[in-house]
Amino acid sequence: MYKTKSKRPTHFDFDLIIIGSGAGGGVAAHIAAGRGKKVAIIEADTIGGECPNYGCVPTKALLQAAEAYQSAKNAGRFGIKATSVTFNYSAVNAWRQTAVFNTGVEDGREAYKSDGITVLHGHSHFLSAWQISLSDKRYTARNFLIATGTRNVVPPIEGLKETGFITYREAITLKSPPESIFIIGGGAIGCEFAQLFWSFDSKVHIADFDKRLLAREDAEVGDLVGALFEERGIGVHVNSKIISVSGGKGSKTVTMETDGRRHSVVVEEILLAAGKAPNLDLGLDNAGVKYDRRGLKVDLHMRTSVKHIYAAGDVVGPFMFTHMAAYQSRIAAHNMYQNKKVSANYHAVPRCTFINPEVASVGPSEQELRDRGVKLQVGTAEISIIGRSNTSNESTGFVKVITSHTGVLLGASIVSPRAGEMIHELTLAIHKGLKARDIVETIHAFPTWSEAVRVACTRIRNY
């Protein structure tokens, strides 16, 4: 039950209080401060939030090191003789720490203060729509922005808590790769850690209840990633339900059921990557803010059910990406202080999974569009047909574009080296409502991976 509206104070401590210092909160904080507003930002964990401290930056730094190791091991195909290729995981961890340091996140508090933003630490709680408590103090604000992010979901698997597991937070700081690891969850996080630990010679298993890895992507993407993982010796257990976990430190048994058959795997460690839930323990009922288990309810102006309380980032969705949080944060800050409002638009949001080869997508999948009854065309191109594939000795992957029946680009998927960079051409095209023929008529440099984008668009009829 949501409480009735509270009385608006006559005096405010701040113009804006932001709860959460990640991309969803930090961007708006600097924008509002730049407009001369008195701003406070509250962080219950680490300044900068998840991405630079525990998520995107450290994992991609580790994956870069893993790619370098694999490249050195396989340099012989280019006539490069590399003997006794090994790795020093302490040095790899040092590189991870350097990458995090180079983001400037350790100076995040000072960056806020230099813009005149008050930084507060602790867990905040709404007392009303206008007031929060923090430790033994209370603060009021004309506007609030909630950007509290998410937490890991622990599924109700028998014995999981008792046996023990790690999450991505612990996985990035391991002193050495485990000899063997079982990853629960076949989404982007699970696949990236499968890539990482396989690269550093761990025996890896990955499981998901869906029928393919990366189940939210086009079917061809998940099928290819699963096949590549299996080819590398990774145990892929899709359409699988984890029944129980047992054992202890160094030897853990995971029992699962796959296609009606029960079997077990013994590993040194278990990594949980089974999804996230929004952080909502904020006294939202006291403020009258509407929410459900998926997160806060906001309109396209990023406003909650209470007109002076906004929200952005993972706690809102619909995508849990740093670039999405920053985008929403900009919109929230604009709409707080501008009469001409702007609305969020989610039809062209790029998403990337940093495995090898990379996976990148934008827009809805083919199945989503077909389920909506959209008349569409599909054009595909294998990367093996372009010049860059020949010079790089990389032939696995494809570009897939999805258009309306008239050729307007609606969605795309890429599996290719540097797919994360390639996807932005298609993201811009979808954002601007361009047709496949607009891509075809654009000159693409030779030899580049992006030539495959152009070739895929030539496969659309009447381009």
Summarize the structure.
Helix content is 32%, strand content 25%. The protein has helices spanning 23-34, 50-53, 56-73, 89-102, 108-114, 160-163, 168-171, 188-199, 219-231, 284-287, 322-337, 366-371, 387-392, 419-431, 436-440, 451-458, and strands at residues 14-19, 39-43, 118-121, 124-126, 131-134, 137-146, 150-152, 180-184, 203-207, 235-237, 240-248, 251-258, 261-267, 269-272, 276-278, 291-292, 295-296, 309-311, 350-353, 358-362, 376-382, 398-404, 409-416.
Strand portion: 25-35%
Q: Determine the fraction of residues in helical runs and give it as a percent range.
A: 25-40%
User: Which residues form runs of ≥5 with pLDDT under 50?
Assistant: none
What structural category characterises the helix and strand content? Answer: alpha/beta
Described by strand count, sense and barrel closure, the largest sheet is: 7 strands, mixed
Give me the Rg, rounded: 24 Å
Number of strands: 23
Give average pLDDT, whole number.
96
Cα(first) to Cα(last) distance is 55 Å
The number of distinct helices, counting runs of at least 4 residues, comes to: 16
| Assembly context of the chains | single chain
What's the shape?
A: globular
Task: Describe what you observe in this structure.
- The termini are far apart.
- Strand 9 (203-207), helix 9 (219-231) and strand 10 form a beta-alpha-beta unit.
- The chain has helices spanning 23-34, 50-53, 56-73, 89-102, 108-114, 160-163, 168-171, 188-199, 219-231, 284-287, 322-337, 366-371, 387-392, 419-431, 436-440, 451-458; strands at 14-19, 39-43, 118-121, 124-126, 131-134, 137-146, 150-152, 180-184, 203-207, 235-237, 240-248, 251-258, 261-267, 269-272, 276-278, 291-292, 295-296, 309-311, 350-353, 358-362, 376-382, 398-404, 409-416.
- By secondary structure, it is of the alpha/beta class.
- It is built from 16 helices and 23 strands.
- Helix content is 32%, strand content 25%.
- The radius of gyration is 24 Å and the shape is globular.
- The strands form 6 sheets. Strands 1, 2, 3, 4, 5, 6 and 18 form a 7-stranded mixed β-sheet that branches. Strands 19-20-23-22-21 form a 5-stranded antiparallel β-sheet.
